Amino acid sequence: MSYTSLPSVCGIGLRAPHYREALDTAPPLGWVEVHSENFFDGGSPLAMLRRVAETWPLSLHGVGLGLGSAARPDAGHLASLKRLVDELQPAAVSEHLSFNHSAQRYVNDLLPIPYTRAALDTIAGHVAQTQDALRRPILLENLSSYVEFPGNEMNEGEFLAELARQTGCGILLDVNNLYVNRINLGTDTDAVLAALPVEAIGEIHLAGYSEREGLLVDTHSQPVHDGVWQFYREVIARIGPRPTLIEWDLEIPPLAVLRGEAAKAQAILESRHELA
């Protein structure tokens, strides 16, 4: 099954401060990813995104659908995403494996889920509903987390693997998130990686964390840290080259800085391509 038509090179998360420069200069970005919800209202943002989609391979990354919630996906949100996907025909569509809403309330956050059979059954239904609406498989991203639910029946990798098996979805492996969980929670990242079906991993994210009172916080406001770069090398050696994204969402630097980070990832990908 094809989860994405992105090339196995490094791209960047394209954010508003860089729209004009990117379109005016058309640098070799590999591919770009944007947050889907920023373009639901159409108008000039969508017109800009059409130009982006004509220039680079495009990935749509959702932050608001909340497929890990107990409540079903919001019908209006899903309809807006479908319109965007139908118009742009992106190379990939992804969402977070998180919860963010109930029937009465929406929370602007990516909250963790319990890794239980009951949660798996509920979330599998939400993923199937979403993929049926979009008429394509989506990628689901693992989260950074600062607490663990008691009573987990499997690790995150096993949960994602079973979700992929049941629904046909793919996996967006956020290497930074997994590294943060290793440091903060003592997550056995080797066990998580071992459980993931390699063929289902369609994309990788890299980002920079912040440190607050000894806790690593997934802020996307820093360069990728040395420990994450090393972990990324290990992951690529294990699963082979994958489309890789540099995310930077706060304290956004000049575009040249993002391109420099992408070049580091690209060098790692190319070295692995040469060994293949």
Automatic annotation (TrEMBL):
It comes from the Bacteria. SUPFAM superfamilies: Xylose isomerase-like. Gene3D superfamilies: Divalent-metal-dependent TIM barrel enzymes. Belongs to the UPF0276 family. This is UPF0276 protein QCL97_015435. It comes from Chromobacterium amazonense.
